[in-house]
Please model this.
Amino acid sequence: MSQRTFSIIKPDAVKKGHAGAILAEIEKAGFRLVAIKKIALTKEQAEGFYHVHAARPFFGELTSFMSSGTIFPMVLEKENAIADLRKLMGATNPAEAAEGTIRKKFASSIGENAIHGSDAEDTAAFEIGYFFAGYELK
Model:
């Protein structure tokens, strides 16, 4: 059964010109691109998106980074989409990411790790709804 997940190509990857290569990796892994847009978040929008991390020490740095440039939020679909995307992305720390993963190839640090992906169905539902209206998800 097909499942949807949410992902963002982050500002560091966009600035370095890796968005196309990351999209190619995602499509090569069998994901269907349901929706994508090119936007820049305000600090307040980033804070709303990452509200679950508000008490964490990295919250300010994370939301400043995510509002520092262009991002590509997207909705992806395939069987086992959430788990498969997490595996394709690799560990948060690119130094610990497996060879061939997106973060091993394109990330430079824990903070600037090229891509975000939902970690569970409820998270994916919130994240998709944060960026996309229902009519955009055909």
